[in-house]
Amino acid sequence: MELPFYYQGLMKKYPQVTTEEWQLLDSIATVKHIRKGESFLRYGKVARFSAFLLSGQFKFSLLDEEGDERIVKFSFTDDFLANCESYHKKAPSNISIIAMEDAVILRINIKKLQPLYDLHMNLLQVNLQLYQELLEQQAEHQYILSLKSPLQRYRFLVEHRPAMIQKISLTNIARYLYISREALSRARILLSARSRGFCD
Prior knowledge:
Elements: H1 7-13, H2 19-27, E1 29-34, E2 39-41, E3 49-55, E4 58-63, E5 69-75, E6 80-81, H3 84-89, E7 96-99, E8 103-109, H4 110-119, H5 121-146, H6 150-160, H7 162-167, H8 170-177, H9 181-195
Antiparallel strand pairs: 1-8, 2-7, 3-6, 3-8, 4-5, 4-7
Helix pairs in contact: 4-5, 6-9, 8-9
């Protein structure tokens, strides 16, 4: 059986997984369309599904004590969507996973996915790879937030995550950096001025 075209990106990103294993995943997966602003997982709900992102963008967000949105992570095409902590603890999710644009996902019931790890080492390896990526992303975000000024935080993204700057709106970048939109605008102007040496 030939796999649908949307597996091409996933097969390239995870070359250790065989065609037969992708077919196995396909048998327990469902393609879902999610509109901009809709949730893959809502705050307070227990996670039951994970998904590969076939197209679109998502944000992992929470509300601070003042009720302002804070973004802890972004996901793009071929990334993995999940809140494993909520699933394993059977606890309400402390984050929402929300589409930032119309998106298509390959949704998988985690309960059906987990037994496959015991039978297919390649899938277990992907699971470990995803976990490692998550830890690295969390560590990087914590480092960004440890930087004192909005300028330092924004400059880190410009230097290390330029693709994020291109894809994400300024409002959502500000929420990811835990600064106001105005502070981000000032940081962008200042960084631009410094890069030009204050004169053209």
